[in-house]
TrEMBL record:
Assigned keywords, A-Z: Hydrolase
Gene Ontology MF terms in the entry: hydrolase activity
One Pfam short name: Abhydrolase_3
PANTHER family, sorted: AB HYDROLASE SUPERFAMILY PROTEIN C4A8.06C, ALPHA_BETA HYDROLASE FOLD-3 DOMAIN-CONTAINING PROTEIN
Name used for this protein in its record: Alpha/Beta hydrolase protein
InterPro entries: AB_hydrolase_3, AB_hydrolase_fold, GDXG_lipolytic_enzyme
Occurrences of domain Alpha/beta hydrolase fold-3 (ranges): 37-135
Length: 312
């Protein structure tokens, strides 16, 4: 597996936003390959392209894909619509217009055969690509937030109730940053067999801000910023034309309740959209961290990735 890093856009300050492109070596005779774009999670506040599970990238390449993993600007110093959503759309467009000209000799991508994958907040971004004129051929959602009118997103999170108060001056330091597009933290499990809360360094302002916002119930309001939840809510774009979509979700998820994926699956079914629900028994948010081929739960991950391959 090889990879190259590209700049797919400059932000308004002229700062580069990068994407990693993974592929197996090509030949002059190689046929065009489909592309998979993958978005990391982190509540739209933390995370980076390096946090995508490498075993998922590896399997996608084995299934014949060229894999693109972009960064995106992070809230709360920029709104979800202006930062994560806009950057994810721009990365998707870049894959279609620019990437074919940048690949090594002998490697060809069919930019019309694209699929989207996301993890947690990144799954929201993957689903939102259904708002594009040229939609992904299929989408794979790992435990993604949606249905933002639900009171769950506007209420304190019980699983974080025992967190101690954070110093206001620590939380305020987040707003001294200028829209970073890469933060080396994530909401993954400490290990594949753990159901504990993610272990983050809460002395870091951005981590502390995110967990405090979720604890107090204003995380979504703060990252959306302008109160217009509908334009960043994937269910706003549900229709009979929505791409085939698979959902993978642990049924003991405390950060994004399993019912959100179940309800979305049922809603798409009623619209006549091809959809699949892969329920992971007894697992919490980010259950897939560190799960390798042959381990418990891998069969569901493999089924989700193969769902994508079956639509290109």
């Amino acid at each position: 597996m090889e990879h190259q890093e590209f700049v797919f856009k400059l932000d308004p300050r002229g700062q580069p936003i990068e994407a990693d492109v993974y592929f197996s070596p090509g030949t002059q005779e190689a046929t065009s390959r489909p592309a998979a774009i993958m978005f990391h999670g982190g509540g739209f506040v933390i995370g980076a392209k390096e946090r995508i599970p490498p075993q998922h990238i590896k399997m996608l390449i084995e299934l014949g894909f060229i894999v693109v993993v972009p960064n995106y600007r992070l809230a709360p110093t920029i709104s979800m619509y202006e930062g994560p959503f806009q950057d994810s759309k721009d990365a998707y467009t870049w894959c279609q217009t620019d990437l074919p000209k940048l690949l090594p000799t002998g490697l060809s991508v069919d930019s019309q055969r694209m699929v989207a994958i996301g993890y947690s907040a990144g799954a929201t971004l993957a689903l939102l690509l259904a708002s594009m004129q040229t939609k992904p051929r299929a989408i794979l959602d790992f435990y993604g937030p949606l249905n933002f009118s639900d009171k769950f997103w506007h209420s304190p999170l019980p699983s974080l109730a025992d967190l101690p108060p954070f110093p206001p001056e620590l939380l305020a330091k987040v707003f001294e940053e200028e829209d970073p597009s890469s933060v080396a933290s994530s909401l993954e499990r400490p290990s594949p067999d753990s159901n504990a809360a993610p272990k983050l360094d809460l002395s870091r302002p951005r981590n502390a801000w995110l967990f405090n916002a979720m604890k107090e119930g204003h995380h979504l309001r703060s990252v959306v910023g302008d109160g217009d939840y509908a334009r960043v809510d994937p269910i706003s774009f549900f229709s009979g034309e929505f791409p085939p979509t698979a959902f993978i979700h642990g049924n003991q998820d405390t950060l994004v309740e399993f019912r959100f994926s179940k309800d979305a699956y049922e809603a798409l079914q009623k619209l006549g959209v091809e959809t699949q629900l892969l329920e992971i028994e007894g697992k919490n948010h980010g259950f897939d961290a560190g799960i390798e081929e042959g381990m418990e739960g891998w069969d569901k991950i493999q089924a989700g990735l193969e769902f994508l391959a079956n639509h290109v």
